[in-house]
């Protein structure tokens, strides 16, 4: 199995989703170090010698696409994991909306057997299910938000997939931090931040003003829906190059160094400090699509932000697509489970 590399938050390519937002940087979400697009990881540890009930049922049933204990099976390259998101408990704490994103090192031939070999254990269990988003990538999301202040362990029992017995199992433990849930009301121009259920901060904001149509989409509107924080930078360079405007003489051209930027979508939406125009905060929407905040409010929000924190935006006509970044909460639970190879069978177990 390929060794896992240190993780980073980089831009995920979003095919056929929406036009980019004007706050787009041309880069992606950020974390401590860079890796290839859509693949984030950290060192793995040995897995427990246990298997969940779903995996056991698949082993008994067998599969037509794999062989076990044969020369053919031994000769075939082992299925391994190229990347796991988020990073481990020693590197970061994550928010209560965080997904577990697993990228395999090759196309998965038997999704049902592979999914059944993936186990999630939590100190404070809630129902969850996997959804395949490509031939190599599968995402775990819970039915409701994770409970805060706990540890969650993911284990891939790769050696228990028929025909893959020579592979090494992989495990990672995550640390869930404070439940940061923010509600952005673009009509009232305010962001209310709750921590562990308690309202702790109300920040005047200015959202997307609208008025720039690209391929039938008003890209100057902020998207409404359940976003997750994907990464952050103390200063982010934001330019107009995403819409092909690179000439400084063009009226639409801009290149700005923006402080306290927390990324919440792949299309370039952030919560960040307003670059001037403070008179509009709390009064009207004037941004290119991002959520602008006061200097003090943006700095404070940046300081508490964890990847996987919930930022729910309401009040605009532009809907957030579930494939745009980590916007998996845009699908209801029934729709989410339709992407499972095991009909959404829960694999959550208490530790």
Automatic annotation (TrEMBL):
This is L,D-transpeptidase. GO terms for cellular component: extracellular region. The active site is at 272 (proton donor/acceptor), 290 (nucleophile). Residues 1-22 form the signal peptide. It comes from the Bacteria. Pfam families: Big_10, YkuD. The keyword Acyltransferase applies. InterPro entries: Big_10 (IPR041280), LD-transpeptidase (IPR050979), LD_TPept_cat_dom (IPR005490), Transpep_catalytic_dom (IPR038063). One of its GO terms (biological process) is peptidoglycan-protein cross-linking. It comes from Microbispora oryzae. CDD domains: YkuD_like. Keywords: Acyltransferase, Cell shape, Cell wall biogenesis/degradation, Peptidoglycan synthesis, Signal, Transferase. Residues 180-314 form the L,D-TPase catalytic domain.
